[in-house]
Amino acid sequence: EVQLQASGGGLVQPGGSLRLSCAASGFTFDDYVIGWFRQTPGKEREGVSYISISGGTTYYAEPEKGRFTISRDNAKNTVYLQMNSLKPEDTAIYYCAARRFSMSKADYDYDYWGQGTLVTVSS
User: Fold this and answer.
1) Under 8 Å between Cβ of 14 and 123
2) Over the chain, what is the mean pLDDT?
3) Pairing between β-strand 78-83 and β-strand 68-73 as defined by DSSP bridges
4) What are phi and psi of 88, to 5 degrees?
5) CB 71 within 8 A of CB 18
6) Predicted pLDDT of residue 74
């Protein structure tokens, strides 16, 4: 019933760009904050970026600040993450997640999770 479908990952060279999408269904999308997280085997899950219900408030972790842009289109029930100037250390599975009403940086505060999409940055 509830779905968060992440897509748009792939293989890019350092310095390249990707745009990830997260398409939601089965819940009231405009009642939920959306976060992007990433995880590499052997490392803890990291928060990347977050966006408020209206899209008016955004947050970026320091390594992504100035390179990534989060946005949402509530009419399409979709959130985007534009990633520019990609670095090898950005390689990870990227997950989108939804939390009702209020912003949080904590992964355990999120109610719904997508399956993730793999981003590989390599020459």
Assistant:
1) yes
2) 96
3) antiparallel
4) -55, -35
5) no
6) 97
The pair of three-digit structure tokens given for residue 112, joined into one six-digit string: 């719904």
Cβ atoms of 121 and 86 within 8 Å: the answer is yes
The two three-digit tokens of residue 27, written as one number? 């819940």
72 CB neighbour count, 10 Å cutoff: 23
The CA distance from 114 to 122, in Å, is 25
Do 6 and 114 meet the contact criterion of CB atoms below 8 Å apart?
yes
Average pLDDT over residues 1-28: 97
For every residue of 25-84, which 3-state class applies, written as one string?
ECCCHHHEEEEEEEECCCCCCEEEEEECCCCCCEEECHHHCCCEEEEEEHHHCEEEEEEC
Name the residue with tokens 């997260």.
22
At residue 10, the pLDDT reads 98
Amino acid at 85: S
Structure tokens given for 121 = 């940055």
